[in-house]
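Example record

Each entry pairs one chain with its bound ligand, magnesium ion.
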Amino acid sequence: MLVIEGVHKSFIVPAGEVVALRDIQLQVEKGELVTFLGPSGCGKSTLLKIVAGLDTSYEGTVRLNGRVIAGPGIEKGFIFQEPRLFPWLTVEKNIAANYSLRDPQVRRQVDELVELVRLKGFEKAYPRELSGGMAQRAAIARALLRKPEVLLLDEPFGALDAFTRSHMQEVLLDIWENNRTTMLFVTHDLDEAVFLGQKVVIMDPRPGHIRKVIRIDLPYPRKRAGTAFQEMRSRVLGEFEKVEEPAFDVGAGI
Ligand code: ADP
Ligand code: MG
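Structure tokens for the complex follow.
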């Protein structure tokens, strides 16, 4: 349903040309949860912005359900690293945003989403009263209310502490199993990529390109401590060890 073909993107900077993406080919099926893993500068955000329609100056084609992506639209939800809520609106009004909560259908959907992202009791709270994880859950609920065909998440849990982060990963999987929204999830965290993704797209920098796509054939919920998970994690890590310089901090446990 999402087809990326021959995408090439470069930026002209004072020092010359930076190739952010080179010959990207990828297909994502409807309902798939795909994670993109790679060190900083490998073009993850650039690729996500292209799919979002936020950047349209590139070579190649990106099609969503057969149609070339020409700009941003409600069929594509985008979650940034920081929640980007309206500080002057309550949680429920942030989720509803330009829809009216007086519309009973909107009211019902907002209530369902509040439940789904585990913010029950915080509907009337303001963003300043929320923790980072709660604010990000409100942002995800806002995106979901628009029923996007594809949800694009750019290191959405990168600013959260490890405990909140693993809770958020569980909430995200809950959401995905509930409504099967196609998700493209960018991270530089190996564990997160393997824990969430049905497929991990491994990217390398200079120039940004796809090194390999690894299918993670493990049922959900996944057990981090389990042998199957550890084996899969080692396999993905093994791909990075082929790079000469250490690509990123691989964390403990391996
Ligand atoms: P990632 O999200 O994986 O960290 P980015 O997509 O942000 O990587 O960046 C890929 C490359 O493109 C980097 O070398 C970065 O410096 C460069 N780049 C990204 N955005 C711009 C821009 N607006 N102008 C110039 N160079 C950019
Ligand atoms: Mg980025």
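The domain at 2-75+150-240 is CATH 3.40.50.300 (Rossmann fold).
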